[in-house]
Amino acid sequence: MLTRFAIAPSGFKESLSAGSVAEAIAAGVRRVVPDAETDLIPLVDGGEGTARALAAADGGRLVALPATGPVGQSIGTHFALLRDGTAVVEMAAVAGLSLVPRDLRDPGATTTYGVGELIRAALDTGARRILVGCGDSGTSDGGAGALQALGARLLDADGWELPRGGRELRRLSRIDASGLDPRLADTGIRVACNPFNVLCGERGVARVFGPQKGATPTQVEELAAALEHWAAVLTRDLRVPGDLARGPGTGASGGLGAGLAALGAALLPRFDVLLDHIDLDARLARADLVITAEGALDHQTPRGKIPAEVARRAKRFDRPVLVLAGTIGHGAHQVRAAGVDAYSAILPAPVSLTEALGRGGEFLTDATERALRMIRLGARLPSPYAQAAAVSGTQRPSSVR
C-alpha cells in the first residue's frame, strides 16, 4: 500500500510557487490516503524562487534592495547570502518574465541590467563566491545589460554607447571593458543553467524562446542576428577562448549565460549545483511513490526540466514516478524515456488562461486525488497471473493492495 509520498515539483509560471504546488498536491494525497507520510520537496531550477529556497534550505538570509527591472523601471528585488558567504543572484527576481507587463513583452527591448546591479550589490557585501540562477527570464539581450551594469561600455561605430536591449546589439561595434568592476577578477561566479540552451543557431534562444516572450517572427530573426553579432564581438573584445555562440548553457536566460561566461563565469548544469542543498536522492529513495509537476509538459521537459531530473534520480531506486502538468503539449510522451511512469493534465475541462492561473492550486489538488484513486483502482485489478490461476483453479498467492 502506498503510504510514503515524495512530492518534488517545480513551480507553475505566473500561477504557483514550487512550495504552493507541493502543498496543493499533498492536500490531494491526504484526500485518498489520510494517514500518508508526505515529504514536500519544492524544487527550483534556477528560476523563480531560487534565492529564497536556497536561503531557507541553508539557513541563510535574503537581502532586499531596489534594482532596474526588465523594462527599465526600478523594482524591489533581492538576493540571498548563504552561511558560507556565497551570494545567490536569481535573475528571475529582477529580469523574469513575470515582471514584464503583457503589453510590453518584447524580448528585443528588455534588459538584464538589474542582474548586473544585484551582482554588484553582492560584491559590496564582501561576497567573492556568487551563484547565478538562470530561468524564467523575460529577456533576450545576451547578458549585455548585466555587463553594462558591471561597467562595460557597448559602443556603436561612432563611439556612442548603445541603449539597453538585445535588438540594439546589431549596431555594436566594440566593447570597452576598461571600466568593469575590478572585484570581478577575484570573484568565482557559477551559473546554474540548462546546458541544452545555446545562444545562437536554429536551437538558439531567439528562435526557441523569443515567441514565448512576445517576439513576432520578424523580431525573432532580427534578434537571432543581433545575438550572433554579440557573440562574435564578445569573443573578440573580451578574448574569450570558448564558444559563446553554441556552447552548452550560453543561451541560459536569454543569453545571460554567454554574457557571464565572457567574464569568466563557469556555466554548470543547474541540478548539479542546486539539488545538493536538499539531499534529494535520499528523500526519493524513502518514498513509495514520487509525484512531481510542472506547468507545461512537452518535448522540452526531457531537456533539463525538473520532472525529468526527478524521474531520472528516482529510477536509481526503482521508484514509480507520476507527473502532473498544467498542460500537456507536443512530444510529452518522450518523458517516459527519462523514467516517468505516468503523467496527467490537471485541468478538468477547457478554461481560460486567467482561470487556469487563478485556480491552479484547486485544480492540482483535485487532479492529485483523481490520479491516486485511479492508481488504487489499478492495484485492485487482478494480475495476469491471478487470472490464469482462477481459470486453472489454483490459489492466488497474495492479494494486491
CATH architecture of the largest domain: Alpha-Beta Complex
Coarse structural class: alpha/beta
Helix content: 25-40%
CA-based shape: globular
- For the residues shown, what is the average pLDDT? 92
Instruction: Point out poorly predicted stretches.
Output: 389-401
- Supply the CATH superfamily name of the largest domain: Glycerate kinase, domain 2
**Strand line-up across the major sheet:** 3-4-5-6-9-10
CATH topological fold name of the largest domain: Glycerate kinase, domain 2
Please give the radius of gyration in angstroms.
23 Å
Give the N-to-C terminal Cα separation.
Answer: 5 Å
Strand content: 15-25%
Task: Please tell me the total number of domains.
Answer: 2
Number of contiguous helices: 14
**CATH first level of the largest domain:** Alpha Beta
Q: What is the N-to-C order of secondary-structure elements (H for helix, E for strand)? A: EHEHEEEHHEHEEEHHHEHHEHEEHHH
Largest sheet: 6 strands, mixed
The number of E-state strands comes to 13
